[in-house]
Design brief:
By secondary structure, the chain is an alpha+beta fold. It is 50% helix and 16% strand. It has seven helices and eight strands; from the N terminus they run ααααβααβββββββα. The strands form two sheets. It has a four-stranded antiparallel sheet, with helices on one face. Helix 1 runs antiparallel to helix 2, helix 2 packs across helix 3 and helix 4 packs across helix 6. The protein is globular. The termini are far apart. 24% of the residues are buried.
Length: 325
């Protein structure tokens, strides 16, 4: 196949059709493979012809996926991208966003776990920045999850008599124990960050990363809330809740909406954020002082009305403690 054969609208239509076939084939093969594994584990004898058909279908799907990836890589190379950038763009074209984000999360989870074990300090905190921890708010919950996972691992190891099922469940349960520990570790080493310029970076482990420019912060206050919605979901009034163990302690309101990407890749936009900070008073004080320094007002500005700094003074309209405590 020559390079120019898939150029133009007809080529784009061909690639779209091929991409649809590959995605539907993979989506259909996943439950079929799970069913096949269950049959093998349960001792069900499968006809040789059926196994041959399954191997053929799987091989064909893999071949089509490889061809599609190569075609997209070539298309991006012709558009002027480098080899690595073209490969990443081709993967983005073919792999759904939730799958990519979950795969990336597993990688970041491992690196965060290693950072936590080796005590390398918080990630993404530069000189002049302030780390705002939040992991302590979920320690009891994570300990409970870990206890349940350990008990389940021990019980299933004792009661399951079939060797294959025993091995599969043992691997899954051990991975579950690791996941709970690594998730908590990622929250420890990836705290919220208040930048030296007054910007705010809100995170939850390796799952979520939201950057709020300093210029969009209108007010900040310490306020305890118990949101009931989904994590990082935006409510009707434009507020996104980043609760830890069902609790938020700091509210930041913005002058303009901030766009961010939720856990599974869905875009969202919020005009205010409520998040959990282990020491809400200190977080509010540091954030106010950082924005004040950026505006040249001095760290002690906590007034709510117009002052020498004009509109900049009105940013500090929170009801929580100011820099003086």
């Amino acid at each position: 196949m020559r390079t120019g054969e898939l150029a133009g609208p007809a080529g784009a239509t061909t690639l779209t059709a091929l991409r649809t076939v590959v995605r539907r084939s993979v989506a259909a093969l996943l439950p079929a493979e799970v069913l096949l594994v269950l049959c093998v584990v349960g001792g069900v004898r499968l006809p040789p012809g059926l196994l041959w058909v399954l191997r053929t279908v799987v091989g064909t799907a893999l071949l089509l996926a490889t061809v599609l990836l190569c075609l997209d890589h070539r298309r991006h190379r012709r558009a002027g991208l480098g080899s690595r950038s073209a490969l990443l763009a081709a993967l983005a074209d073919n792999v759904p966003v939730p799958v990519r984000r979950l795969a990336a999360h597993e990688v970041f989870l491992s690196t965060s776990f290693l950072r936590w074990v080796t005590r390398r300090g918080p990630h993404g905190v530069r000189d002049g920045d302030t780390a705002v921890p939040y992991a302590s708010g979920q320690t009891a919950v994570m300990a409970g999850f870990l206890f349940v996972c350990v008990v389940e691992t021990v019980v299933l190891a004792l009661v399951v008599p079939w060797p294959v099922v025993h091995a599969v469940l043992l691997v899954v349960d051990l991975w579950g124990c690791y996941f709970v520990v690594a998730l908590h570790a990622s929250c420890v080493v990836r705290p919220h960050v208040i930048g030296a310029d007054g910007s705010l970076r809100l995170r939850y482990g390796a799952l979520l990363d939201i950057r709020v420019p300093a210029g969009r912060i209108a007010s900040v206050r310490a306020a305890t809330a118990f949101p009931e919605g989904r994590f990082a979901a935006v409510s009707g009034d434009g507020t996104a809740d980043l609760a830890v163990a069902g609790l938020t302690t700091v509210t930041v309101e913005l002058t303009e909406p901030v766009r961010f990407v939720r856990v599974l890749g869905r875009p969202a936009e919020a005009r205010a954020f409520r998040f959990y900070a282990a020491d809400a008073a200190s977080a509010v004080a540091v954030l106010r002082a950082a924005v004040a320094r950026r505006d040249g007002l001095g760290a002690g500005v906590t007034g709510t009305g117009p002052g020498p700094g004009g509109d900049a003074d009105r940013r500090f309209t929170g009801t929580g403690p100011g820099p003086a405590g």
